[in-house]
Design brief:
By secondary structure, the protein is mostly helical. Helices cover 83% and strands 0% of the residues.
């Protein structure tokens, strides 16, 4: 459940800070900012619906691999946006990769968490899962949103305050995803025993 909360925190926090950067920092309208997240949503949905079709021996590696893919995509997003640039088409590809990674990190984790729950406890487990997911999103938005807004005001003296703040949020997210990938690998190893 901890990993589920972490992946939702990182996903929601990064989307929130990116939306702030795209609209406030780069002057994009809400439609353009929202469309940037479409590739991530499509990739996450496709993985969530199809990851079980992969060879079962790969299932244990999906969670840590997903975190590595999402972290790498975050680094790419940070590099694309670091100097106040728009990122172009590569930003859409990076967002699709982030969605792919989050899908691999979230969906198998969800199955693992709920797969061992006895039927009589299913309602309680479902409620706990929803609570952890929403709490993770709340913590992620509060943490990365605060980091972004704090850094924007700190870097306001330079012309690319939003780029600096957004890049910092991306790097923090990438490091957190790397740590969570390690947790995923350890959880997968203990689950196999």
């Amino acid at each position: 459940m901890v990993q589920i909360g972490l992946v939702m925190a990182l996903n929601a926090g990064l989307m929130f800070s990116f939306a702030l950067h795209l609209q406030s920092g780069l002057g994009r309208d809400a439609l353009h900012a929202g469309l940037l997240f479409a590739p991530a949503a499509l990739a996450l949905g496709a993985v969530g619906l199809n990851w079980r079709r992969m060879t079962e021996r790969w299932h244990a590696a999906l969670v840590p691999s997903g975190f590595v893919i999402a972290g790498s995509a975050c680094v790419l997003c940070g590099l694309l946006l670091r100097d106040g640039g728009s990122g172009g088409a590569w930003l859409y590809a990076a967002m699709a990769a982030a969605g792919l990674g989050v899908g691999f990190a979230y969906s198998p984790n969800l199955t693992r968490a709920l797969g061992s729950v006895p039927a009589q406890d299913a309602a309680d487990a479902s409620g706990l899962l929803v609570t952890v997911t929403q709490l993770g999103q709340l913590v992620g938005i509060a943490t990365l949103g605060t980091l972004y807004l704090n850094r924007v005001s700190y870097y306001a003296r330079s012309g690319s305050a939003g780029a600096h703040a957004s890049a910092l949020g991306v790097w923090v997210t990438a490091v957190a995803l790397a740590g969570t990938a390690l947790l995923g690998a350890l959880a997968g190893a203990s689950h196999r025993r």
